[in-house]
Amino acid sequence: MSSSIPQMGGLSPLPPTAPPAAAPPAPSGATQAGGVGPSFAEALQQSTGGVQFSKHALERLQRRNIGANTATIRRLERGVDMAARKNARDAVVMVDNTAFVVSVKNRTVITAIDAAQMRDHVFTNIDSAVVA
User: Fold this and answer.
1) pLDDT score, position 64
2) This prediction's pTM
């Protein structure tokens, strides 16, 4: 027995459709809309060989206008290294007037808080604090 799909007016009931065209992936050196060079997030990720920033942390840095220059990143990395040597899991690393909450095991900054935001702020779920 052969089964066939009934034809309606010479057309099959469900015409084949082409899958929607996928947008081409953004090049690794993509820029922010209207910007020149790498985005803030990419520049920060490229500048840090040892510490990563979560999406949330990058948003906080931008929203709170917290600068993260090379010297700040180096001090943050040293603070994370110090916490790791003491077997810390989650730490607050203080660099100047900024507190970075870091997952030490993953070497990932979870959030960043400037001096203005620290007032009346409680840090929870941390086991260490480092002044770097």
Assistant:
1) 92
2) 0.64
